[in-house]
Amino acid sequence: MARSNAQLAQRFRQRQRTKGLRPVQLWLPDTRKAEFTAQVARDIAAVAELSPGDAAMLDAFGRIAAEDLPDCH
Question: Domain spans of the chain?
Answer without folding.
Answer: 5-72
